[in-house]
Design brief:
The protein is α/β, with parallel strands linked by helices and 254 residues long. The chain has two domains: 4-28 and 116-252, Rossmann fold; 30-112. The chain contains ten helices and seven strands. A seven-stranded mixed beta sheet has the order 1-7-6-5-2-3-4, with helices on both faces. Helix 1 runs antiparallel to helix 4, helix 3 crosses helix 4 (96-112) and helix 8 packs across helix 9 (199-210).
Length: 254
Amino acid sequence: MTLELRDTSIIKDFPKAVIFDTDNTLYPYHYSHQQASLAVQQKAEKILGIKQSRFSDALKISKREIKERLGETASSHSRLLYFQRTIELLGLKTQIMTTLDLEQTYWRTFLTNSQLFPEMHEFLHDLRAHGIQSAVVTDLTAQIQFRKLVYFGLHEAFDYIVTTEEAGADKPNPLPFQLARSKLGLEKGDNLWMIGDHPVKDIQGAKKTLGAITLQKNHKDVKVLKGKEGPDILFDKYSELRELLGEISSNKGK
């Protein structure tokens, strides 16, 4: 697939800033999650004597309970809470040391199995070279999202980070987007790009709150909405966005 643009007139100028989602936008999430989940199940079986299938079933219930109780908040994504409640559901009461061990196992395995999408670093370098600000707006707690960026060597790549722990609500709630705009020093109507993979949280959220030009990262199992509800630009590779910046630069020089 090549770059798909809904309207070519929207890319005549460089944006003042580009906002990125994290998971499945900077790197592929699902493989890392699968490997981390397997490592946790194996450790739980070893420590607790619980079969992996039974642990997995209890974990599903735990996640559902916590998300229903906490709603669209950063803590609703907490693996620490998931594993605490899973152990309790298995009839083993609260086991603090085991819960901490499982959480560390999950994130350690997750990170060691994570890799940025090709040319991610280069695209961020291109943005800086053109004087374009950048920010991350991401769900989940600040600590683990910061750890991911450090692991990827991106801890100095963005001008600002906004987590939903800081903002008080998950995307597509307006709060994290509004906080990012404030940090970036942008006004309503400023040319702004949002790059993400989720059709509602990222694409519709940024479009409705910020009036952003939306770029959706396409990959397996991504849902792409059509028409005005969908992205302005659909892309597979960051090399395509690098070429797009090059075209804008060339056109401005004419």
